[in-house]
Amino acid sequence: MNSKLHVVCDEGSKPLVMMLTEGQMSDHRGARLMFRALPKAKTLIADKILECALAAGLQLAIA
Question: What is the pLDDT of residues 46-63, one digit of tens each?
């Protein structure tokens, strides 16, 4: 049994949103849940979650 910890941090590396999921949860599903909790921002630095959000059909507005 395993788990995944998803974290959104601000520019000072302070955690803003944390989500603990089962390890078998797809990154697409986790991305959908995390994007609803993101604060408004001018810049988004992401790795897998950005790819997953786009693949899941989420609309992103990046200024």
Answer: 666 666 666 666 665 554
